[in-house]
Amino acid sequence: MRNTIGMKVVKESDGHLLAMVSGLIIHPDTGKVEALRLKALDPRFRNAILLTGDILHFKTKVYVKDENDIAELEDIIRIMDIETRGTYFIGNTVKNEAGETIGGVVDVDFDPKSYYIKQIHSEKSFLFFRYNPRMFSYESILQVEPDFILVKDIQEVKESVKKPSILDKNQPVLDV
Asked: DSSP letter at 117?
């Protein structure tokens, strides 16, 4: 998604710039990107969106038929319902099944043809520092709530079944 934010939305026929992508609206139950948030050049649009079904091509730019494909968020009931639920991906906290915070979602990868999320990227942060980057496939997401995303943490499972090594410093040393 980092590459998606700031992408130009242009008219396919002549390449005329209509808007810039400013965010994604993702359905929390299906993981599908339903619409793109836009910063429209037309001042009449306050909460401009572009439904993914209206996208002709998604490459280095987003191509649409014309300016009539851009809509106001409030005019599209289906998208408005997603927004009023308050369930967001970017910026939301990621927790494991034990309730421990893994980090916050900083990015999502999605298929540009089907618009379904493939994976989310999370990191912990402190002041201006980011650390402990993790990726979770969409299949590992168990639940999306307004204040957190619950994931099945495969790394945690692997660590719990790890056998102790003879070089492990926490193991008792036997005197012979």
From this structure: E
Q: CA torsion angle for 40, 79, 53, 120 (degrees, to 10)?
A: 90
Question: Could you tell me the fold of the domain covering 93-157?
Answer: SH3 type barrels. (2.30.30)
- At residue 146, what is the residue type? P
CATH 2.30.30.240 range(s) for the chain read 93-157
Record the pTM.
0.77
Burial 106-145 (b: 16+ CB within 10 A, else e): bbbbbeeeebebeebbbbeeeeeeeeeeeebebeebeebe
Domain made up of 8-85: CATH architecture: Roll (2.30)
From first to last of its 176 residues, what are the pLDDT tens digits of the chain?
Answer: 568 999 999 999 999 999 999 999 999 999 999 999 999 998 888 899 999 999 999 999 999 999 999 999 999 998 999 888 888 898 999 999 999 999 999 999 999 999 999 999 999 988 888 889 999 999 999 999 999 999 998 765 444 444 554 455 555 554 54
